[in-house]
Amino acid sequence: QSALTQPASVSGSPGQSITISCTGTSSDVGGYKYASWYQQHPGKAPKLMIYDVINRPSGVSNRFSGSQSGNTASLTISGLQPEDEADYYCTSYTTTGTLVFGIGTKVTVL
Amino acid sequence: QVQLVESGGGVVQPGRSLRLSCATSGFIFSNSAMHWVRQAPGKGLEWVAVIFNDGRTKFYADSVKGRFTISRDNTESTLYLQMTTLRVEDTAVYFCAKEKDGGWYQFDFWGQGTLVSVSS
Fold it and tell me: Are strands A86-93 and A36-40 parallel, antiparallel or unpaired?
């Protein structure tokens, strides 16, 4: 199972919006509505930011939003803040009963 | 509050075995599917395995299939990962993760991770 495709890095200034894409196939992202997004700060465990494509867990800022079109899921961070600087990973359930992660995107706040 | 605490990591030679544990509390363990996810030093996250709450249904990543076995003890609220025939490329921090209620293969709680280093 190949990793989902994400941009290696995305950057933005405080207050700006950025979008991270996550491209898979019809056997994973495109076949289900189970895409999720995790934020990971250095040396820390990942934190769930978006699940089931568009849903935010309790406690996650509404500056984070998710969407999906075909085989591509996307995470948008609005009103970028310094604490948003982290690595972001998408995931999707697959037709083989496994889970695949994206390669990860490093978000830099300029 | 929900807690997941991994243990059992360490330094091991290639070809040897190691068993990881993940002690949990703060939720009804027997109701939750549980996963292992790993992260090689400086690399991205890689899903390893899942065990459903019944303890019978399991799936593995191709990279570990046939070498790793996931199991659980619902009476002790503990998750395990038996790793055999370890390879250098298995070196990673191993996280256990709780599947979110109603969140298929999506994780609302993670442990802090335990480091496995495979080296001669």
Answer: antiparallel
Percentage of residues of chain B with pLDDT beyond 90 = 96
**Nearest CB to B108; choose among A40, A57, A103:** A57
The verdict on a CB contact (< 8 Å) between B104 and A93 is yes
Q: Do B44 and A45 touch (CB under 8 A)?
A: no
Burial class for B50, CB neighbours closer than 10 Å (0-12, 13-18, 19+): buried
Identify residues of A whose CB sits under 8 angstroms from chain B CBs: 1, 3, 32, 34, 36, 38, 40, 45-48, 51-52, 57, 87, 89, 91, 93, 96-104
A59-81: pLDDT as tens digits: 999 999 999 999 999 999 999 99
Check if the beta carbon of residue B8 is closer than 8 Å to that of residue B20: yes
Q: Percent of chain A at pLDDT above 70?
A: 100
Going by DSSP bridges, is the β-strand pair B45-51/B34-39 parallel, antiparallel, or unpaired? Answer: antiparallel
B-chain residue closest to A56, CA distance: B108
Q: What's the pLDDT at B104?
A: 87
Cα end-to-end distance, chain B, whole Å: 40
Would you call A46 and B103 a contact, using CB atoms and an 8 Å cutoff? no
The rounded distance, in Å, linking the Cα atoms of A33 and A31 is 7
- Note whether B45 contacts A99, CB cutoff 8 Å: no
Cβ-Cβ contacts under 8 Å, B113 against chain A: 45
